[in-house]
Amino acid sequence: MRSVELPNFIQHIGAQGVTTATESSVQREQLTRHLNAFLECQRFKDVATNGLQVAGRERIANIVVGVTANKALIDAAIEAKADAVIVHHGLFWKGDSPALVGYQRERVAALLAHNINLYAYHLPLDVHAEVGNNACLGRRLGLSPTGTCGEAGLVMLGQLGVSADVRCTVLAAYVARHYGRRVTLFSHPERPIRTIAWCTGAGGSLLGDAIAAGADAFITGEISEQHVHQARESNITLIAAGHHATERDGVAALAAHLVQQFGVNYQFIDINSPV
User: What span, in angstroms and rounded, lies between the C-alpha atoms of 254 and 260?
Assistant: First the structure.
């Protein structure tokens, strides 16, 4: 089996600082209904609260999107005069204390003081076929999807857009180039790569699904110590490209959809995280 270098081409969806400028607005309840239906929130048993988390003004014309609802993003949204913020990682998670104290109080207080709506979509934004984080990763890397596996289809399966097998080091360099950062690679050089599984974010826990599906490699964002041993003992290449890095594109793609749907303005603001 021969190995080939991968093409240096990327269709990038979303970029830091991208702004659209229109003059339309949408009512909060209409936007909420559309987002919940479009992302099929009712399908998921999630550890996060999906949908509108903090209510602000009723008319929404300017939207800021980002990965995580941290204070820096909220402050940037205030500066941008946003009516709404849409994120992948919201404020409220199962098992967390419901007390609004400390940094959590400061986040909510800033949103309320400036009458800004906060929307968050976790699993629904991971798996959506059009704007999902996984779909965006596939497009970014030029992967041709062939199916899904794992609970709620959280792992995508596909193949490279080349006719021959690829070396693990070439694939890792390709991923690093297209995410603009170093990646972590654990591999078996003797196993050529044809079938790839991927799941953005903290997808390491789904490595077993990729192995069961017969994938030669698994690309994810964040892994834990035990996943290294699991990959080694299962003869599968494991590439971790960063939790934050692999989940930037979904919110940007979702915002672009809202521009098409309602003509609103949006700005993608990247508050970077090294993880």
Answer: 10
